[in-house]
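Two proteins were folded this term; both appear here.
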Amino acid sequence: MFHLVLVFTIAIGLGLGASGNKSTGSVSVPSLLEGTSEGAGSLLDGTSEEVQQAAQDDWQPEDQTPTGKFTTATEVKPILSMTKPNWVAVRDYDGKDLLYFTNLLAWRCGLHQVSYGVNGAAEQPLDFEECHLDTGQPNALTMETLMPFLTFDAGSINSLSVTVIYDDGTTDTATYQRSDILMP
């Protein structure tokens, strides 16, 4: 089973379809998600293009030589593509909605920016801790300065849009409904 997942991961990373031929069309995504992993991507209100432009001002894509430590888009993009339904989660806890970005932030070393919009609002950048490139676990979350979640009023998150800008300059977007990302 592990080998099958590995081959599938490599195929996605190379843009190969099930036939082994390089695919040029879009991949079908489960109904709870909308978005694209090709080009700039645009949310219905157009905010992702604005967010992408702001993130790329005075920024250049990083070297994509694999490090073996999952610190480049080349290394993390196949993982995040396969775990897209789990990028975020909402938890009703202690009278608040907690919006978790743990899955995305666990692979943040291959990301340039993450932005989010709640209930159709314009997307805003998410602050997250730097990579720990001088350690054996560069993607580890220390949670010393920033937590991997945001707090909102109870029951206030109905829908969510997320845009990821990888450190190679490509983007990916997703939209979620509360029921699809609500934790028990």
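Next, the second protein.
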Amino acid sequence: MKKTMKAGITTLALLLAVAVGVKAQTKGNSESQRPSFSLSVGPEAGIPVGSFSDYYKWSLGGSVQADYAIIGKTLYVNLNAGFANVFADDVPGLDDLQWIPVKAGLRYYPFHSNNLYVQGQAGVNFITNGPVGNKTAAFTYSPQIGYLIPLAKGSYLDAGVKFDGNSKFVDGGEPANLIGLRVAYTFSL
């Protein structure tokens, strides 16, 4: 299953790179077409990394994100909330983890004529199915790189590859980190 998820993430990352290359060749100013205020909704999937992968196989969830331009249509502030289920490996007594991440951050479009972006978010991750150890919440951060693919006037497909880092849920334990994808339908408000 891990090999299938890794192959899927690699394939989507390559498709994202191709989309960026194709869109970079088109004429027009993408900055003027990007919305000043947008909402996106979509699924997220990930693969645990580090020692976290010894106990958990993969994650699946979804999120809602609002982006608001604060400097032109190049720098945006955003809020993100979601839900994720991290599926446990076949370890006796180990249950799936379910958490609600709540994050705020910035999104930056480094090229004015391109919809490629880098994003950083930080916040809190709340465990919803009881304490894993002695904590029910952890600091979380998510650097992401992605691309807005125009679909129709005012709507986009937002595809991004990200790292989800979480502090320790158990004192003396290891962090719960994942590498994942977010694919969301984005529309202007």
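The longest helix spans residues 2-24. Residues 44 and 182 are 4 Å apart (CA to CA). These notes refer to the second protein only.
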